[in-house]
Amino acid sequence: MPSTQRLRNQHGADRTSPTAAAARRRRLRADQARQLADLLRHQVLGGAFPDGALPHESALCADYLASRNTVRQALDLLRAEGLVERVPGVGTVVVAEKYPHALNRLQGLAETLHEHGRVSNEVRTVGPVVAPGCVAERLGVPDGSEVLYVERLRRLGGLPLSLDLTYIPMDIGVRLLGSDLENTDIFRLLEELTGQPLGTAEITLEAVNADAHSAAVLQAPRGAAVLMLERLTHLADGRPVDLEFIRFRGDRITMQGLVHRSL
Amino acid sequence: MPSTQRLRNQHGADRTSPTAAAARRRRLRADQARQLADLLRHQVLGGAFPDGALPHESALCADYLASRNTVRQALDLLRAEGLVERVPGVGTVVVAEKYPHALNRLQGLAETLHEHGRVSNEVRTVGPVVAPGCVAERLGVPDGSEVLYVERLRRLGGLPLSLDLTYIPMDIGVRLLGSDLENTDIFRLLEELTGQPLGTAEITLEAVNADAHSAAVLQAPRGAAVLMLERLTHLADGRPVDLEFIRFRGDRITMQGLVHRSL
């Protein structure tokens, strides 16, 4: 990264032993590699390298006024994230695509990714369950009543994207049972079955490490970072109709949107 | 989880060997543990257990119509996430708090978390750098010009929450240099220095595994899930003034907001 010598770095500035100086250089280089990796990640995700090949290391050194070691360390970070690979004789190439999920508009997966391919759903489980108290409360159904539980592994172009756990009030759920859950967003089915559009959803996003079983289902490494979305969706008339717990593979999905300062 | 025997599970239904049946039971129990863990996670994060103690295992078995093994496995999942701990003689208690970051309104960290405590910023690096091409382009400054680079480790009540890498155009950045970056959100400083409110930000959210160095800075385990936020913020007049790359500790921050079906 550029101009490091001019930066005021508040760590270890007064240390003078050779060991401390070496440790400080390593730390500085790690900091610089992270800075560079973040800039390159943005370009990788945004498709800035249309032929899929990153510039050669020497070009990156020149473009970012960075040392060869820093450039290599930055590329190592992106490789560890599974975004790029080093191909002998070619250089560093983009190997993973992350798909942008809309954050500003309430959309189903097939809907939000329609430009990127076809979403198919493997229905792992579907059927009525007695609603646990916290589910009944959020869906506004009587304690102890049944709700429809649906568990889907969702794929884009055959690649696992997310594992979705869904609870639906039974009066609507019973009509979902005969629907084409394999090929249709539940959002679209809800609107068809109720004859009204969806309204608003309360969402919570977290980053969690995948447990062993979830990782296996998503075909991701154990401990892989997962973007976890909890979402309670209401119909336009305000009735809550869809409680979901969604684990997106962190290496395949980003959430993108606009945020405004004033409400 | 309730009523499992009534669920149509599409896996292995036709397998009859004892080994296959045992594997199927293990898989079913893992699925049920994940369902239960997701329901409990929501309550843990929402403060539904005000004294910090989860109900006893036998109560959870009754409430969720789940077997003892399923309940234990669900609690193991939450323990692996660092949300709860088992305390001998007491039971399972909540040990981690995740703080809700607003997703609907553009806010600085101190601003969005003001109800939860005081945010302090350790300024690891601050100074001018020659803007890399992609930074210059996004900030709308001439290629090769200088921008202010700021790197902050941000804490709430002393606990590391996020590592923020920030690029600011130099005409504004030079005035930031004399500001109290340790105790003030950059958003607030930008509004003070420019005399106008912020407008809109383009954001991208991802879940990534922390590299070794970032994890060390955040005092998190290597590979810990990190909520990564890239954000380009504009002033109300549309000028881009703040490009940030933020790594939130996944075990300390959630993003919460409302999403609407129609725009």
Automatic annotation (TrEMBL), chains A, B:
SMART domains: HTH_GNTR, UTRA
UniProt xrefs under SUPFAM superfamilies: Chorismate lyase-like (SSF64288), Winged helix' DNA-binding domain (SSF46785)
One GO BP: negative regulation of DNA-templated transcription
Transmembrane stretches, start-end: none
Domain HTH gntR-type, chain residue ranges per copy: 30-97
Lineage: superkingdom: Bacteria
InterPro entries: Bact_HTH_transcr_reg (IPR050679), Chorismate_lyase_/UTRA_dom_sf (IPR028978), Tscrpt_reg_HTH_GntR (IPR000524), UTRA (IPR011663), WH-like_DNA-bd_sf (IPR036388), WH_DNA-bd_sf (IPR036390)
Keywords: DNA-binding, Transcription, Transcription regulation
Entry keyword annotation includes Transcription: yes
CDD domains found in the cross-reference section: WHTH_GntR (cd07377)
Disordered: annotated span: 1-24
Pfam families for the chain: GntR, UTRA
Gene Ontology MF terms in the entry: DNA binding; DNA-binding transcription factor activity
Name of this protein: GntR family transcriptional regulator
Originating species: Streptomyces piniterrae
Taxonomic classification: Bacteria, Bacillati, Actinomycetota, Actinomycetes, Kitasatosporales
